[in-house]
Amino acid sequence: MNHPSPLAEIVSTGRYLPDCVVTNDDLAKRMDTSDEWIASRTGIRSRRIAGPEVNAAIMGAGAARAAMDEAGVDPGEVDILILSTATPDRWLPSTACDAQALLGCGNAVAFDLMAACSGFLYALSMAEGYLCTGRGEVALVVSTEKMSAIVDWEDRATCVLFGDGAGAAVVRPANGSSRGILASHLRSDGHLANLLYRPSGGTVEPMDADVLERRSHLIRMEGREVFKNAVRSMAEASDIALRRAGLTAADVDLMVPHQANFRIIEATAKYSGIPMDRVYVNLDRFGNMSSASIPVALDEAREQGLIGDGSIVLSAAFGAGLTWGAMVWRF
Ligand code: ACO
Hints:
It is a single chain. This protein is α/β, with parallel strands linked by helices. It has two domains: 8-176, Thiolase/Chalcone synthase (Peroxisomal Thiolase, Chain A, domain 1, 3-Layer(aba) Sandwich); 181-330, Peroxisomal Thiolase, Chain A, domain 1, CATH 3.40.47. It contains eleven helices and 13 strands. A hairpin with a 3-residue loop joins strand 12 (312-319) and strand 13 (323-330). The longest helix has 22 residues, at 223-244. The site of acetyl coenzyme *A has 25 residues, from helix 2, helix 6, helix 8 and strand 12.
C-alpha cells in the first residue's frame, strides 16, 4: 500500500498535570451527585484541579519543557509556538506570549489558537503548514486548559466532566522520513455554536454585575446534542483521514481519541471498527481536559510503550464551535 509522504513529524511529547486530585466522592461532598452517576455515564472517576497560583501558561510551559527536553531542543531554536486553549489566562495578550516568556523561546512567533477540544489537531495542522513551506525548522505545539476556571461549579451536569492539564509536542519537517502526519481531516460548524459555549463575558455581553449574577460567563452545554454530534463527527472524520492515508482500521495500532466521555469513545471506536483494546483511555483519571486531552494521552501512551517506532496512530477530536477532526500519524 502506498502512503502519502509526510510533511512534518512529532519528534517528542510532554505533559503537565496539577498535583491536586479531586475524586467523584470529593465532588459528592460539595454538590448533589455521586461516584455512581458520574462514573456510569461518563467513565470519569477523578480529575486534576490547578490551584490559584497555577495558570494555563504555567501548565503549558511545563508540558513544553518536557517535550523540548526529550527532543533536545533549546528554547532559542523554536521558530513557532502555537498554543491552543479555551481558557486563556487573560484576554490580552495571548497565553502563547506568556508561555513564550516563561520558556525563553525568544525567536518564536507565538500565538493562541482557539478550537476548543479539537485545538491540538488544529494546531498540529497549522504547524505542519508552517514547517512544510520552509518558514521554520522547529514548531512547538502546546495545549493547555484550566477548565476549572470556566465551568459553573453550581451546574452539576457540566462541572463534573472537566479537569485541568497541559500537553505539548515538538514538531519538525519530515525531510523525507516515512514518519509523521500521514493525513488529516478538520472541520467546523458555527451554526451549532450554542450547544457548548460561554454566553457572556466577551464583547457581545461584557462582564457586569448582571452577568455575574446569572453566571452566564461560564460554560453552558446541551449534553445530549453534544453527545450525538460528537460520535457522528469523530467517526466520519476518522474514516476520511484513514482513507486519505491509504489505510484502514485494521492498520491502526492505537487510537488516541479526545477524552470527553467513555461512551462517546466506545461508540466512535465501534463505528470506526477499532476494538477497545487498541484505544487509549485516561479520562477515568483526568476527565475532559479539552484540547490537552489528546497530547497528554499521546505522551502517556508513548511512555508506556504502546506507541513505538512505526506505530500507526489515529486521533479524533470534537469540541465547541462546533469543531472536529481526525489525524493519522506514523511514529
Ligand atoms: N449527578 C447526578 N445527577 C445528575 C448530574 C450529576 N452530576 N448531572 C445531571 N444529573 C441529573 C439531571 O438533573 C437529570 O435529572 P432529572 O431526570 O431528574 O431531570 C438526570 O441526571 C439526567 O440528566 P441528563 O443531562 O439528561 O443526563 P445524560 O444521560 O444526558 O448525561 C451527560 C449527561 C453525561 C453530560 C451526557 O449528556 C454527555 O456526556 N454528553 C456529552 C457531553 C460532553 O462530553 N461534552 C464535552 C464534549 S466537547 C468538549 O470536550 C468540550
